[in-house]
Structure formats: C-alpha cells, structure tokens
Amino acid sequence: MKKLILIFFLLIFSFFLASDSLNLVEIQKKEKERRKKLAKSKYVLTNDKLIEYSLKKSKTFVESDKVKTTEVKTSKTTKKKIDPKSTEQYWRNRLNILNKNIEGLKKSIQESQSALNRTSSNFLVASTPSLQQQIKMNIDRLTKQISELKANLTEIEANKEAFLREARREGALPGWLR
Is residue 18 scored above 50 in pLDDT? Predict the structure, then answer.
C-alpha cells in the first residue's frame, strides 16, 4: 500500500515537472522574439566617449585653496559657468590638503614625544638640582606642545569628517574621496 502511494505521488510530481518545463521553453521563445522586435539604440557609450565627454564638459582646476573655473561653450552663442564643487579634482585636492595636515601633525606629535622621552631620561640622570630644574621646565614645555598638537589634530580630524559629510551632500562621488 505504501509503495502504491509513493508511486502515485511520483507520477503526479513528474507530470508537474514536465508541464513546467514546457512552459519555460515557451517563455524563452517569447522573450527571444520580444528582444528581436526591440529597436537597437543608436548611441553606444564606451569608456573613450565617456572620457571625451567629461573633458569637454568641465575644465576646472584647483590651485592650493583658490578655485578657478573656466567657461564652457554649450552652444555657439551661449556660455555657462561650471560649479567647482561638481568636479572630481576639487574634492580630491581638498581631501589631500586635509590628509597632508593630519600626517604632518601626527609626525610632529611623534617627534615631540620622542624628544620628551629623551628629556625625561635625562632628568633621571641629572645630578645637580639646577640641571634638574632646567630639564623639568623643558619637559613641561614639551608636554604643553604635545597637548596643543593633539588638540589641533582632533580639530582637523573633525574638519575632515565635516568635509566628508559636505561632499556627500553636494553630490561628490564616493570614489573621489578615497
């Protein structure tokens, strides 16, 4: 009895599989016919054409913090000014300036820290109280300098985060900010 029920279910299952495969073949044929009927596009966009178009559209350059925009002819009689915030070079240059400032501050902090370490070791070796007093003043000066540099670093890192948020709001592509 169990074998009979099992055979019955297998027959029903195979019937549904056969009918579905026929439908899939029909659907595939209809899709091929539909694609043949579609008109092919007249314009093909390639990487070369894209680069050529982007070079024609905007020619903006950034020199340090100053932004210069050039006028681009949209037709023979009209001229249009390009927004500097719409170009990749603008965003990359601003990000590079921030990154260079951060790197410079980190390097200054490391140099000051190593000088503080050397001075601290000299303090322990100093034999006279007057020499220890001079070294103590130097340690205080270096400690103050390091704390100021760290404060500047946190400020510039906050500026960088604000810059990244601004760039996203203004429509800069993510690849421009890497």
Answer: yes
